[in-house]
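Hi U.,

Before I forget, here's the chain from the pilot set. I'm dumping it here mostly so it's searchable later in email.
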Amino acid sequence: MRPPVWNPPISLSASEQKVAQRIRKAKLFLFLRQIRHELFDLEFQQELAKVFKDSTVGLCPVPPAQIALAIILQAYTGVSDDEAIEAMVMDRRWQLVLDCLDSEQAPFGKGTLVRFRAALIASEGDRMLIERTIEMAQMPQGYSFRTLRAALDSSPLWGAARVEDTYNLLGHALRKALEVIARDRKQNVSSIATLAGADIVAGSSLKAALDLDWDDPQQKAQALTTILQTLNSVESWVKEQTDVGEKALTQAKQSIEDARIIEAQDTEEESNGSPKLRKGVAPNRRISIEDKDMRHGRKSRNQRFDGYKRHVLKDLDLGMVRAVGVTSANQPEAEVTQPIETDLQHQKVELKELQIDRAYLTSHLVKERDSDLTIVCKSWRVRNGKLFDKTSFILDWENSKILCPNGISLPFMQGQVVHFPKHECNICPLHSQCTESKNGRSVSIHADEILLKELRERQNTAQGRAKLRERVSIEHCLAKIGQWQGEQARYIGLRKNLFDLRRMAVVHNLHVLAQMPLPNPMLATA
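Structure:
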């Protein structure tokens, strides 16, 4: 059955006016009450109806617009699903927005909220919410809706799942496999673990079950051997099970495969064939069993975090967030620009200016840019103490030659390092002013050296430095979104956390809308 169109009253009733007058903080509640009929107009409600069809037997279909409003309020207040349903009954501000004032029952249940969220994620409906807030904006004078000046930046987002060491990662994966089979057979985990020869993973603590001196290297090595032997035993036992449901068997095998991934990334063989922990960290190392997308990342050389990076693209003229992205913490920032560009294509807007930090210089937006796109970024410093820096060398782009201050010319290629011959450098009269190396001077040519040269020249002007200061706006935007979303992810996995960040962008955009003049006089006096 197709969900109905939601037509809540526009004017405030007497009881609603009393509630509205008592709202001193969290003014977004009042603003959403004022604009809900415009935010969810008939056309947008029809789009949402295609996304969500509540076919729960015995219950009236719920208007998707009403659930979408609850999703926005949930993001704004940071409450759980259960708390959101409770707020619809206990919080008069929620009731004011959702048109259920003084109701003793929530307009819909937790199951409907969960299904609607899943439908939004599956259909990119969360992106549609961002686009709708942009459509509602009153464009500033001189603003072009077809072209965009934007700033892009990121901040850390700690993962919601538990980060574990190699021993516990292996034990966690094995316990999950056994728990699935135990539920399918309606038995306890301990009895299943005994049948699988895996008693050490049946308890609440793997290390307590092993009961070893973890300061003794030999006992730690023995623990790893025991756990891997248990993995072999569980894998063989699971393969022999014929009375387990197909779904449960698939999930159990997936957990065993996760354990094998941990084994491959974290262990290696001694010369005698016994296993040992790998030295160093494997590339793209998995750090959690519950969340396969979480990774180690670094905010700086000394600050590490575990989880994700959230990326925000802000319209510098409109003040709204145009697109967002979430990547694993170890992914380079540049990798987020492909999906962000896809979001911009849905908005039918073309980038004309992009303000970024240096981490995004290797993105496809920069490398594949056309002449119409202006990149604004702070260049690397080229100072070399008291010695000649790179700007003392002349780059002949037409002939791909680099000329040193003493007139020695060598060919160069972008993205490579030019090494001047040491026999030439050692007898050069300018040697003491150029390098302290006995092997000759070297100059690194960036893969996009022409752009860096342009950025250096630009930031040496007052106008160029003023341009760089505009980027502070995106840092403030990230700070606001971080204030609502928090430092830790709400969900497990990349896609769900992208959903969460998108609805935070909607909250941000609504705050921007609230500062704009309202087109409808009725709303201004409501």
